[in-house]
Amino acid sequence: MSKYDLDGKVAIVTGASRGIGEAIARGFVEAGASVVISSRKPENILPVADSINDQYPDRAIGVPAHTGRRVETISLVELAVEKFERIDIAVNNASTNPHFGPLLSSEESQWDKIFEVNVKGYFWLCQAAALQMIKQGQGGKIINIASIAGVEPGFMMGIYSVSKAAIIMLTKSLAIELGKDNIQVNAIAPGFVRTSFSKALWDNPSIYDSIIRRTPAGRIAKPEEIIGITLYLASSASDFTTGAVYMVDGGYTLS
Ligand SMILES: NC(=O)c1ccc[n+]([C@@H]2O[C@H](COP(=O)([O-])OP(=O)(O)OC[C@H]3O[C@@H](n4cnc5c(N)ncnc54)[C@H](OP(=O)(O)O)[C@@H]3O)[C@@H](O)[C@H]2O)c1
Asked: Is pLDDT above 90 for 1?
């Protein structure tokens, strides 16, 4: 199991105050890493860092940072280096979706918001983290949380789907560029996961039933079920894996 060990590694996880990001951050800490976790609101992120530190002293810092703002993402990376002296793993997880409806009804402000956070925001962290990893000279791991919506269009979530497809292409493009630096860049495409982000879907009985009918696993996921693949992609077990997209969807996209 030592291939999956994260002992002494330092990871940044965005959008880690709840849901999938929090689960990933806690999974990393259990595997031995220290984590720099962020979300927009201090009242959301600081208690999560405190609760990790209660169990694993001095292994987490919580940083309020809006990933759509480049300067805040750069300071997140700088703070991580200041506190833990290096970065080995960066997980882009914070996303937004302010538009639910037909694409033809979408507005420019919604396109801007979604692209600012889901695409440019992901790139700002990739860029700042990769530059630091290159400086350290020991490789690194970048993991982008995409979605099955990046592979097949999400119902009434056109802009979000386009942004998630962009994340997949960003992942592949960077994987090519950073291969020579021994930095692996991969994406995870979760299916339906029980979090507040997707509540409008799983809380609606007719939408929920149609999801379950199409899912071979017969259920939606818990956030903790995204940890396994993330640990693989963050650890040396995945040193020859790059530019890949892992569907974690209970088989939803098979049918
Ligand atoms: N849940 C699903 O079914 C599902 C399916 C496929 C893919 N995904 C993807 O999984 C990722 C996590 O989703 P989730 O379901 O875990 O969502 P969630 O439970 O709503 O959590 C979202 C997290 O992101 C933070 N956040 C939101 N906007 C931010 C911003 N601009 N800058 C920094 N932090 C921000 C939130 O905290 P603050 O409010 O404090 O900022 C929170 O910590 C997203 O990329 C999503 O697209 C989710």
From this structure: no
Which residues make Cβ contacts (< 8 Å) with residue 76, sequence separation at least 6? 12, 14, 36, 38, 63, 65, 125, 128
List of E strands, the chain: 10-14, 34-39, 60-64, 89-92, 140-145, 183-190, 245-248
pLDDT digits (tens, 9 = 90+) for 177-194: 999 999 999 999 999 999
Å from CA of 177 to ligand 1 middle: 27
Ligand 1, residues at Cβ distance < 6 Å:
14-21, 38-41, 44, 66-68, 93-96, 117, 145, 147, 190, 192-193, 195-198
Tell me the per-residue pLDDT of 7-54, one tens digit each, with 9 for 90 and over: 999 999 999 999 999 999 999 999 999 999 999 999 999 999 999 999
CA distance 12 to 129: 9
Q: Which CATH number is 2-254's, of 2.70.70.10, 3.40.50.300, 3.40.120.10, 3.40.50.720?
A: 3.40.50.720
Q: Answer yes or no: 160 catalytic.
A: yes
Ligand 1 centroid – CA 180 distance (Å): 31
Please identify which of the residues 160, 232, 246, 252 carries the catalytic annotation: 160
Q: What is the pLDDT of residues 62-120, one digit of tens each?
A: 999 999 999 999 999 999 999 999 999 999 999 999 999 999 999 999 999 999 999 99
Domain boundaries, the chain: 2-254
For the CA of 201, the nearest atom of ligand 1: 3
DSSP H/E element including 76: helix 70-84
